[in-house]
Description:
Blueprint: H1 3-12, H2 18-33, H3 40-46, H4 52-62, H5 65-68, E1 71-72, E2 75-83, E3 87-93, E4 99-105, H6 113-126, E5 137-143, E6 146-152, H7 159-166, H8 171-190, E7 193-194, E8 203-206, E9 217-220, E10 227-228, H9 237-241, H10 258-261, H11 269-285, H12 295-304, H13 310-315, H14 319-328, H15 340-354, H16 370-385, H17 394-400, H18 403-413, H19 416-440, E11 445-447, H20 452-458, E12 465-468, E13 471-473, E14 477-479, E15 486-490, E16 495-497, E17 500-502, E18 507-511, E19 514-515, E20 519-521, E21 526-530, E22 533-534, E23 537-540, E24 543-547, E25 550-551, E26 555-558, E27 562-566, E28 569-570, E29 574-577, E30 580-584, E31 587-589, E32 592-595, E33 598-607, E34 615-618, E35 623-632, E36 635-640, E37 644-654, E38 657-662, E39 670-677, E40 680-683, H21 687-700
Amino acid sequence: MDDQRLVQMALDQGLITADQVxxxxxxxxxxxxxxxxxxxxxxxQDLGHLSDQAARELRKKSSSSGVRALxxxxxxxxxxxxxxxxxxxxxxxxxxGDEVAIKLLSAKFQSNEEYQRRFDRxxxxxxxxxxxxxxxxxxxxxxxxxxxxxxxxxxxPSLKARIQDQGPISxxxxxxxxxxxxxxxxxxxxxxxxxxxxKPANIIIGAPRPGHHEPFCAKLIDFGLAKAWQDAEHSGExxxxxxxxxxxxxGTPHYMSPEQASGQxxxxxxxxIYGLGxxxxxxxxxxxxxxxxxxxxxxxxxVTEQIDLSELRKKGARKQLVELLEKMLAxxxxxxxxxxxxxxxxxxxxxxxxxxxxxxxxxAIPVATPVAARVSSEIALxxxxxxxxxxxxxxxxxALNTQPNLSASIGKRRTSATWLLLVVVVAxxxxxxxxxxxxxxxxxxxxxxxxxxxxxxxxxxxxxxIRLAPGIYGxxxxxxxxxxxxxxxxxxxxxxxxxxxxxxxxxxxxxxxEVRGPLTLxxxxxxELQGGSAHAVLVDGxxxxxxxxxxxxxxxxxHQGVLSLRGGRAGAGxxxxxxxxxxxxxxxxxxxxITRGALSxxxxxxxxxxxxxxxxxxxxxxxxxxxxxxxxxxxxxxADSSAITALDGLTISASRVGIAWxxxxxxxxxxxxxxxxAPTVASGLPATRVAAASASAASSTxxxxxxxxxxxxx
Length: 714
């Protein structure tokens, strides 16, 4: 049944009015002027005239027997789940009872080449993304002349429907949502995909995952407008089909970044950062940032009108959350948060503040009494705010001075509660005494989660070693010039910092410590990690040295920052811009991407994934490679206007191209020991240069000639 019939059904049942249909029709015409084709039925939902629930019910009533009988990839279609701009989504079930979501391109678009390309691109793009907060695509193709996609079925409403049905979300829910979506969009960007249509309707709110402390598990959907900017095979698609270009805006006006709304073509991850910020504003307030009679008015406001977040402040939203949204929604994208690593780091800081002192406690650490919990929270907040810790509550002081009376009462009552209180009081008393003695004496000082703030304050300006007792230090630790010379060492396994922000003037070492939250280094910082582990890392103008450290999440280095990895692993790639990267004896999972910077790599293995080259160089100078191995599912090295001045031992295994070169290659550069296994050894390089570098590798391994692939470079 076509959309026009659905609109008539909604009118007949009194779900919408003729004025609302006219409003949607005007919107359709305004969007058509901007190159966007949407049906009146879809726009009635997008404008809020027709609820998602009502639309779903009408769709179910209108499902034709022909569609219901359709079988796709072994799944029988059961009924509609929802509708979008390009088609409908159905529930599918196979004989084993497994359920999926099946998206079919609308019949009216089956002969439209632009929508065919867009649908195919969504399938191709989403199938290569694997992230817990992205709805997985499982299969795609044609059935009875209809394009389809088989996707993971996520049970739950869209964020848009959640807001409509239950009202605005809480600050804490917003932080979880931001963390989950930033992780999903960051993964998408690292895989070379820009979503370009981030909005509440494209976020599904699913049930929380077992074993995860979360209010929900959100999933990002609909990559119909995504731009696969690293997909070389289809890089000319947009210019050929006109899906994107200067003067043409794609997206949803309420959530478009200014650069999208003005039709700019050079979009990057900052437009998705803006879209997520606008979606969060909607989720927190219950309405969009701008209103207007037409899409053109809203898009004009996106470009020209400043964001007013005073409503959020009046509503009582956390100051730090509002400040984060301001940075995500900056009109000038040069002043906006630039990367998803920065967004995740800022989100972790807000989350740590909201949960200060309330983190989980390892089983080896005594559970705090209510008074101790309040003191821990106060100290954590003091570290964040860099203010003196208030005097301990009187209840704590009296508790510490009642040990004799407690001992006497034990003999009379011997209740389990009294025993527990005695253990806690004795542990706190002994810990405090030991800390005080060490603080006054020679040698390393000791600290616990409750005493670290005071120990740091008392050590300001001194070169001191502090031994941290096992436990979770539940605040973002800010280390500045006053902590220069500091050496924080784990007294034993289990020391966890929920985040570290290193500020100008710091020279410090962290040994054997897990940094579970973000690790952020500002300008003028010199920080060394010895062992231990870290999650997301942002080196913003400072210098970070990691020795045998495991880094699980993405690493970003910019603003003349320096990153030196010696041993250890990086689990989500490295992105450097205007920076220097030094790698020695490392294993990197994910691409190493250098823009306008330098790279030195020795005895290092880099394993790329997806379409992004294992080593991507863009105007990079002073690149030197020694005994480096690159393993890629697409391209080994992609270099654009870059300089690999020294190459001594480079082994590349790639499924498509070993080296993709753009720009000049100086004949004075010393290249030798090149081994490439790929269908195309090199493109864009003089064949003599590749042959000479490969010949030197062959001569150095005469006893094992199979180590060199003999292929004709292009």
